[in-house]
Automatic annotation (TrEMBL):
SUPFAM superfamilies with a match to the protein in the record: P-loop containing nucleoside triphosphate hydrolases
Residues of the ABC transporter domain: 5-246
SMART domains from the UniProt entry: AAA
GO cellular component, one term: plasma membrane
UniProt entry tagged with the keyword Cell inner membrane: no
Top-level taxonomy: Bacteria, Pseudomonadati, Pseudomonadota, Alphaproteobacteria, Hyphomicrobiales
Name under which the protein is recorded: ABC transporter ATP-binding protein
Organism field: Reyranella soli
A Pfam family it matches: BCA_ABC_TP_C
GO MF annotation list: ATP binding; ATP hydrolysis activity; L-isoleucine transmembrane transporter activity; L-phenylalanine transmembrane transporter activity; L-valine transmembrane transporter activity
Signal peptide: none
Length: 250
């Protein structure tokens, strides 16, 4: 498999605090890859450096052979990378349908037209995405009133509206009940498979990580201390010591 995303010697500091330390990383086209690590390890920062929400101090990020450093987030979305955020990021007062519709309109670059009922824009595309994430029957509900798990599903539909080839999910099951977690992960797995997506995700729930990741990278104090198959990572002595050891006590 070829590398879809190649990251080389990436550094990021916040006022002298090093959050990303010389990270070199390759994501293969089509793989499902988890980035794990304790709270504050630098997972979200790593995602922000990929998606243009943060600019690295040093190093390169290349997606399908194209250098991403310095590009604004909306440009990176257009190149085929979509993400969800650790905190819910939807329009709470709009309906579920409208949230997805707005995302499709934003992506297609279509303007609201005075002579065309807004409702008809991307009607079919919106419907398809809602069905894909299992929200078709909630289309007319106010987004902010959905359960937490369903709001995360809505975020996923919004991310998919940009037709990404690479999907970044930052803790897709955080705050979910075990049942919601199971449903969300099953749905993510189906969607990734159906659309042939490459998936990079962070997650604290190890049953989720080891349940779906084909490869895992471990971040610790901003540094990748291990990267490989679930078995290799599970048995890595340094991972056991610094990561699993910390969790066993926390
Ligand atoms: N904008 C910022 N300014 C200052 N420090 C920051 C900023 N963003 C992140 N940090 C610090 O960088 C470190 C890594 O944070 P980050 O959010 O990337 O960790 P994380 O692995 O995503 O943690 P969690 O599992 O809690 O989500 C933390 O110590 C955090 O306080
Ligand atoms: Mg985080």
């Amino acid at each position: 498999m070829t590398a879809m995303l190649s990251i080389d010697g990436l550094w990021k500091s916040f006022a002298g605090f090093v959050a990303t330390r010389d990270v070199t990383f390759e994501l293969l086209a089509g793989e499902t890859h988890a980035v794990i690590g304790p709270n504050g390890a630098g997972k979200t920062t790593f995602f922000n450096l990929i998606t243009g929400h943060l600019r690295p101090d040093k190093g390169s990020v290349s997606f399908e052979g194209r250098d991403l450093v310095g590009l604004p987030p909306q440009k990176i979305v257009r190149l085929g990378i979509a993400r969800s955020f650790q905190r819910i990021n939807i329009y709470p007062r709009l309906t579920v349908f409208e949230n997805v519709q707005v995302a499709l309109i934003a992506h297609e670059g279509q303007q609201w037209n005075l002579f065309r009922p807004g409702r008809s824009l991307h009607r079919q595309g919106t419907q398809e995405l809602l069905e894909l994430v299992g929200l078709a029957s909630e289309a007319e509900e106010t987004a902010g009133e959905l359960s937490y798990g369903k709001q995360k599903q809505l975020e996923l539909a919004i991310a998919l509206a940009s037709q990404p080839r690479l999907l970044l999910l930052d803790e897709p099951t955080a705050g979910m009940s075990p049942q919601e977690t199971g449903e969300t992960i099953a749905s993510v797995r189906d969607i990734v498979k159906a659309r042939g997506l490459t998936l990079l995700f962070t997650e604290h729930d190890m049953s989720v990580v080891f349940g779906i990741a084909e490869r895992i990278s471990v971040l610790h104090h901003g540094e990748i201390i291990a990267s490989g198959t679930p078995d290799a990572v599970r048995n890595d002595p340094e991972v056991k010591r610094v990561y699993l050891g910390e969790h066993a006590h926390g």
